[in-house]
Design a protein that fits this description.
530 residues; alpha/beta; Alkaline Phosphatase, subunit A; 2 domains; eight-stranded mixed beta sheet; four-stranded antiparallel beta sheet; 19 helices; hydrolase activity; Phosphodiest/P_Trfase; Alkaline_phosphatase_core_sf; hydrolase
């Protein structure tokens, strides 16, 4: 590879969602993934520590901004309001400037949490959390017609519940999605020509595939396709003497049992379900539940999706609260509840200052957090092994008073869920695997040290390292550090002091009032939501 320039002036971030280091190491050592092997031989590589929790909506913004969630502002797929309702997080909620706002021209493709698309010097095609291709999902807007012409069946994602018991068909659908995403990358490369300094493109297919399929032979075939894509991108970055960063937002591993964290809060009387009185009681006495109602409506051709998309969300929430069920949001009596878990392990104390029906005085919160930590850490399996990990929100997110009070995650083969159930644990059903803390980082370029091992790299370190590597200043408030171990000792980045710059949040527009029903269905199909 050419090392004609002392430092790169361009950088390419190639994202593979949910790829664990263990598989890359194993299969590149075995000669199954020759391009990943070349990345390790000709560049620097290692594990990449994710956010806590290790989920897509937190981690990709941290990769793109260099800060933890308390600074970029996104804590999950859904934002919890003071009135116990939720709405989808969007790009308008992002508080920290992204790489493509600091380096231009930039071309951004399929990056999660980028919808709605923002106007940048370059092109953008939004990724996960985009409702559908019926919405404006590109910048400039005319790029959409080029996608439709070149990739007629382009989709944002798959309808995962449809494939729960049809894994062979699911594998074909994932491969088709991967091929279309590859074609999109080629289209954006064509649009860019020579006019680019940053490329940031993400393939989410490995994450989606692994949630339902954790079979090594089938995974290897999928990873071989990723390896071919990597080879093309390596050739592309060589042509422009650009730095290449290959990253995953988190790792992956098998799961064996679901742990319902709200069950333990209810058992110990920190959480109370809404009583079946009034309208709820009348419906309950008739044997009417939310599941039965939605089932009956679907038999009449009226789907839950149709209801949500037709009626205002506030009205839907209000009606849902009156129908008996087991929903962790609608079926909780907040007038009596001390703590509850919402989203991917976000545990909230029902703070009287934070929530409309809060019952806990803020002075009591530290003591309750200690009690809840002891409670969750006491949950063990038949062998006496802990099933849950607990983290203090104030320690993880020190700059934001609105962050979750605790983070509760499954430990090892256990997956935490927030549904209200009468049982503490449950079968994983169609879900074969889920997220792990350690993803991957491999980098290669004119200044990168061949064969170097990166130790202690975190998702917030990618943006500062990339910026410094191409001679750009790093935001003063960045939580990440420059990974100097990645650079060859005599290269310009290795011998240059990190330049710092102040950044300010750009105006991203008003709240997004779109119908995210299809997004919610896809997230439910992957086990991310109830």
């Amino acid at each position: 590879m050419s090392r004609s320039s002392p430092t790169a002036e361009r950088a390419f971030v190639l994202g593979f969602d949910g790829v664990p280091w263990k598989l890359i190491e194993q299969w590149s050592d075995a000669g199954e993934l020759p391009n990943f092997a070349r990345m390790r031989e000709e560049g620097a590589s290692g594990t990449l520590e994710s956010t806590q929790p290790a989920t897509t909506p937190l981690a990709w913004p941290s990769i793109a901004t260099g800060v933890w969630p308390d600074k970029h502002g996104i804590y999950g797929f859904q934002n919890l309001s003071s009135g116990y309702s939720h709405e989808m997080y969007t790009s308008h909620d992002l508080r920290q400037p992204t790489l493509w706002e600091q380096v231009s021209p930039a071309h951004v493709g399929n990056v999660p949490m980028t919808y709605p698309a923002q106007e940048i010097d370059g092109t953008m095609v939004t990724g996960m959390m985009t409702p559908s291709t019926d919405k404006a999902y590109t910048q400039p807007p005319e790029l959409e017609s080029k996608i439709e012409s070149r990739i007629p069946d382009y989709e944002i994602s798959l309808d995962y519940p449809d494939y729960a018991n049809r894994l062979d068909e699911f594998e074909v659908a994932v491969n088709d999605m991967l091929a279309n995403r590859h074609e999109l990358m080629q289209l954006q490369m064509d649009e860019a020509g020579d006019d680019w300094r940053l490329f940031f493109f993400v393939y989410t297919a490995p994450d989606r595939f692994q949630h339902l399929v954790w079979d090594m032979d089938r995974l290897l075939e999928h990873y071989k396709q990723l390896d071919e894509i990597l080879g093309e991108v390596m050739a592309y970055t060589d042509r422009y003497d650009a730095d290449l960063y290959v990253v995953s937002d988190h790792g992956f591993g098998p799961i064996e049992e679901l742990v319902y964290v709200n069950h333990f809060l209810e058992r110990e009387e920190y959480l109370f379900r809404a009583e079946d009185d009034g309208t709820r009681g009348a419906l309950a006495s008739l044997g009417i539940s939310r599941d039965r109602i939605t089932g009956a409506l679907e038999r009449l051709g009226i789907s839950e999706e149709m209801i949500v998309s037709t009626l205002p969300r506030a009205l839907v929430d209000s009606v849902a609260e009156q129908i008996p069920g087991d929903h962790a949001l609608y079926d909780v009596d907040y007038d009596r509840t001390i703590a509850f878990v919402h989203g991917a392990g976000n545990c909230y104390i029902n703070d009287a200052e934070r929530f409309e029906d809060g019952v806990v005085d803020p002075s009591q919160i530290p003591a309750i957090k200690d009690e809840l930590t002891d409670l969750f850490e006491s949950v063990t399996d038949d062998d006496g092994k802990r099933m849950l990990d607990v983290f203090d929100g104030d320690e993880l997110f020190p700059t934001d008073d609105g962050s979750p009070d605790l983070i509760v995650n499954g430990r090892g083969v256990y997956e935490a869920r927030n549904a209200l159930t009468g049982e503490p644990t449950g079968d994983t059903g169609t879900y074969a695997a889920s997220h792990r803390k350690e993803g991957i980082v491999l980098c290669r370029g004119p200044s990168v040290d061949a064969g170097a091992t990166l130790r202690g790299a975190r998702v917030v370190d990618i943006a500062p390292t990339l910026l410094h590597g191409i001679g750009e200043p790093v935001p003063k408030n960045a939580d990440g550090r420059v990974l100097f171990d990645a650079f060859e000792a005599e290269s310009t980045p290795a011998k240059t002091k990190v330049q710092r710059t102040g950044v300010s949040q750009t105006d991203r527009g008003e709240d997004v009032d779109d119908d995210f029903t299809d997004v919610e269905d896809r997230l439910k199909g992957l086990g991310y939501m109830e």
